[in-house]
Amino acid sequence: MSSLYVALDFSDPSQALTLADLLDAQSCGLKVGKELFVRGGPNLVRTLVDRGFDVFLDLKFHDIPHTVAQACLAACDLGVRVVNVHAAGGRAMLNAARDAVPQTPGAPALIAVTVLTSMDETALAEVGIARPLAEQVQLLAGLAFDAGLDGVVCSAWEARAMRTLFDRPNPVIITPGIRPPGSALDDQSRVMAPSDAMAAGATALVVGRPITRASDPSAVVQAILASLR
Ligand code: C5P
Question: Which domains are present in the chain?
Answer without folding.
Answer: 4-228 (3.20.20.70)
